[in-house]
């Protein structure tokens, strides 16, 4: 029986990974899932994390817990973003090693790459330039997570047999996303805005920025599949596609869309027929953020959920969640 601890199981990515692991369990894989709510385990508290690992003794750790948000949240809570993420990463990775955990998967973010990284962004563009100022604290915390995994591998890999890996997803969306009116990412923010516009009969929707930046989006169910794919790769295969000082793997679709095009697509999914207005006085963020996913493709994994189908799925989930809250 393999005991797998999913940190952040109630979040968008963590819940998708849990759903996929539960399907594997139902098919007969000898898996025991370990989860803890924030109320049960505060990952920023070192002693609490130490006690959990000592008692639960997981075999595998998937670190999907994070403090995350969109441009507004990153601008408003920079101290929260860097402190909370650093504390969670340090505590989980170190206590996993202390407890003898051999396999760990850390989930990062495309925010680790420089603002003007080559497009599409290859893994080796890490630390080659300055980050986008609006999400620099979050990006630095995620870079630290990668380097934690690399450093523990370098120091303890041979002597203790540990294998700590990192995957860097592009912008994610889907069920269990954060639809907060101010602190959410672009897709859930637009889904909520267009849904409310249809509900109230509004004639126009105002969107932050110029609409010109390009972004790549990956459905969270694809991310869950990619995460377990990378986690399960034979060590030789993983190491053949990485380097000791460059051990992370990009996860994305390899396709991008402008924010303006995205807004039009979401408006169509939500049934909004009014006017879309862009506010260029608001920040755009990074001009482009397209991931180079050639390494992951060479290893045998590619995204399967197209943006149109993914947006429809995300909107259905939002409608269902709204109806439950309203009941």
From TrEMBL:
EC number assigned by the record: 1.1.1.271
Residues involved in NADP(+) binding: 8-14, 107-110, 142, 169-172, 185
Keyword Transcription regulation recorded: no
Domain of life: Bacteria
Single GO biological process annotation from the record: 'de novo' GDP-L-fucose biosynthetic process
InterPro entries: Epimerase_deHydtase, GDP_fucose/colitose_synth, NAD(P)-bd_dom_sf
Family matches, as HAMAP family: GDP_fucose_synth
Protein name according to UniProt: GDP-L-fucose synthase
Lineage, uppermost ranks: Bacteria, Pseudomonadati, Pseudomonadota, Betaproteobacteria, Nitrosomonadales
